[in-house]
Amino acid sequence: MTKDKKSKIQYTDKRPDWVPENAGDEFAARVMIGVESGNPAIPGQTSEHQAPHSAAKNKLSVDDHVEGVLKDDRGILAQSITLVESNSLKHIEKAQEVIKKILPHTGKSIRVGITGVPGVGKSTFIEVLGTDLCKKGHKVAVLAIDPSSAKTRGSILGDKTRMELLSREKNSFIRPSPSGGTLGGVTRKTRETIMLCEAAGFDVILIETVGVGQSEISVRSMVDFFMLLMLPGGGDELQGIKKGIMEMSDLLVINKAEEDNFAIVTSTLQNYKMALHYIQSATEGWTTEVLKTSALNSVGIEEVWAKVLEFIETTKKSGIHEQRRKDQVVEWVMSMVENELLQKFYNEPAVAALLPGIKENVRSGKTPPTKAVREILEKFL
Ligand code: GDP
Fold first, then answer.
1. Could you tell me the domains of the chain?
2. Is residue 372 a contact partner of residue 362, using CB atoms and an 8 Å limit?
3. pLDDT digits (tens, 9 = 90+) for 33-68
4. Ligand 1 centre and the CA of 296: distance in Å?
5. Cα→Cα distances 125→55, 192, 253, Å
6. Residue 26 Cα, ligand 1 centroid: separation in angstroms?
7. What is the pTM of this model?
8. CA 143/CA 318 separation, integer angstroms
9. Collapsed DSSP state (helix, strand, coil) of residue 207
10. Ligand 1, residues at Cβ distance < 6 Å
């Protein structure tokens, strides 16, 4: 039995209580192994008590990982994702070897980012879209980036009621957001998870993120197509952060567009269309449009997917698609460099010993900020 001090959730057996009761074994295999091997995004599981456990459990060799992923062995795929999510140096090195070997088998999916404020209907939308795509023969992986999950232990996708239908599709794979660490760390882990899923043959990758700022930029930097889900009547959202996210989007979708709020949906649609006139398109050669859906009633979702396909075709023809993918690899490399430098910096014993005193001196005014920076960096360099 696993019991987390801070959580009231208890597990009486190895099956977490958010797994649907009538879920088949393969559901358990796909989700459970990730849970078992220590995904702290799952309520009741913490990295502290799971990390050594998962390290001890992972007896797979690099080749076992590679072969298992390429065969789409869901258990091994889940364990490989756990490996790339690990912060231990030993695991990071092993994960890099796995990534290097699967690299030739990656890149062939359509990568779509989906954002919007909590409650706008992202999960409902992804469930309908994902299930439709599975029925059409696609293999769909759903991932999440949730910078708050370190605190809340996975507020998105970790929810037990979410995406039950989709999770029962044989061709779906749902993975909650990796948690812990910086957004940069979470970004690296998600990028590598995309690659693992692609190597396992998933041809559509949907990445959900909460519409709260920083994480959109990060998702934008790893997808081909980025869409923003909005609520009817959100005219005031054109201010501030929303405008920034609109500028990154290839499609705006007004969800919850139903008969009984027809007037408000129509005026919202007009408002956003007008606003788009004053915004430069996120992708060269593509005009960002506004569509409406009712995810709850499965209305309008096909039109959204048709737009995604049109976008992919257009950008492939113009060369933008390939260009963007190449730029994203460069960004990925740079963000890994930044991450590693930061990690090295904070792990440097001389820096760790110096920091508390210097911070105190800056607080009390004894050391001016610029001098403090020089003192710290001198120790590091
Ligand atoms: P998320 O937080 O963005 O993932 O939103 P959810 O998918 O969890 O949806 C939040 C609530 O809105 C749930 O109660 C859904 O049933 C409801 N919802 C989602 N899509 C629609 C829709 O198209 N119309 C209506 N009326 N409700 C919806």
1. 3-103 (no CATH), 106-318 (3.40.50.300), 327-380 (1.10.287.130)
2. yes
3. 333 233 333 333 333 323 333 444 668 999 999 999
4. 7
5. 36, 25, 10
6. 27
7. 0.80
8. 28
9. strand
10. 116, 118-124, 255-256, 258, 294-296
